[in-house]
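My current task is to audit a protein record that another person submitted. My question to you is simply how this chain folds and whether the tokens agree. This is what I was given:
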Amino acid sequence: MRVHDLRERWRATSLASVWIRPNDWEHPAAEALAEALAEGRGVIAPAERLGAARASVGAGITEALDDVACLYAAFGRPTDVGALRAAAIGWVGERERAPYQIATHDPSTGLSTGEYLGERLRETYGTAERSGTTAGTAHCLLVLDVGLDNLDTWQRLARSAAIGRTLQQVFGEGHPMAAVGDGTFVVLCERGPATAELGQSLRRVVERNAEVLGLQTEVRRPTRVWVERLPGTHADALLLLDHLAR
């Protein structure tokens, strides 16, 4: 199997089953591990590098190891325990090297990471609880879906960068927002009569910017925008983000 085909099959398998943040999956270490496996070379060193790379973007160790298992499933081979062990060593080593490092920035979009959005939601729920109200009373999630199937890596990266710039253009500072799936973006907003109107304005700006940048074929038309009410607990809000990511 060609390296490119193996990597694409691996990515598709992982994103469909275990990987939560599509924008964080691409990495030279993934390319190196796929190449080593396809060419019958040693996988220990590249697997360790991949484990470290996964830790550096905030992926949990279970997610990182499941991702490696997806590579072997895509290749049609039993999972190599040595590769799993190496990935775990790399993951732990990176966490020990920078134990207090928190991934807050997604370089592909210029927005916050999904994990950072989750922490901001935690703060929102805590503030609401202390004030004797609920998070959903004053806040909501504005969801933007521009996702399309059958885009290659570079098309997805170009779209992510363009949507990130558009969200910053529309909302500016002070609004936690992140990509939570392949083409799905979420903004934590104050809830009010103007929220729905803001969503429609966002849709128009996204579509106009896509035309200006020549990305009409990379963005869903019409773009989907809707408001999600915050559920009763922070844990349920994280489950909602996971659901939106799928």
About this structure: The radius of gyration is 19 Å. The mean pLDDT is 88. Residues 26 and 177 are 21 Å apart (CA to CA).
